[in-house]
Specification:
Layout (H helix, E strand, L loop, with lengths): L4 H16 L3 H10 L3 H17 L11 H19 L6 H32 L3 H27 L3
Helix pairs in contact: 1-2, 1-4, 1-5, 1-6, 2-3, 2-6, 4-5, 5-6
Length: 154
């Protein structure tokens, strides 16, 4: 199958989403791929728990070393899954993994910056942070759903 920039951009977008929510990218990717029932349910559960836990005041920062490392690994896997084996060869696989890792790092730092700015705009504090996180979740779900569904059509 010929190289298309659109597939690679969608893979990068999904990996960027994974940088903001570690389990959301895999949940959207497994939804797209139609994974088995138990795998799908477990990834959905992890994503739901992350979306809820992210609003708690004591949630760790997404750019802390362990959290960022998990996001990088998850983002790399999501990018590779989004390309779906259509890009064959070691160079393509390495490119997908590298792209996913880089996009996850960018997504983590950009998402954190936007979340902090929105929290300040909403007046600061735990409630403002939870509201900003909920808005972030909605945007990530909307964008991710569109990226995942359009990947099949292009």
């Amino acid at each position: 199958m010929p190289f298309t920039q659109t597939r690679w951009l969608r893979a990068a977008g999904m990996a960027g989403i994974t940088g903001s929510r570690t389990a959301l990218g895999p949940a959207l990717a497994v939804r797209r791929s139609g994974g088995s029932g138990w795998r799908r349910a477990s990834v959905y559960l992890m994503a739901a728990l992350e979306l809820l836990g992210d609003k708690l005041p004591r949630s760790p920062n997404r750019t802390a070393p362990l959290g960022l490392a998990l996001r990088v690994v998850s983002g790399a896997g999501v990018a590779r899954a989004m390309l779906d084996g259509r890009q064959r060869g070691r160079a393509a696989a390495a490119g997908a993994l590298g792209l996913g890792a880089a996009a996850a790092i960018l997504g983590a730092f950009a998402g954190l910056g936007l979340r902090r700015a929105l929290t300040r705009r909403l007046g600061g504090g735990a409630l403002a942070n939870a509201i900003a996180g909920t808005i972030e979740d909605a945007a990530l779900l909307l964008i991710g759903s569109r990226l995942a569904s359009r990947a099949d059509t292009q």
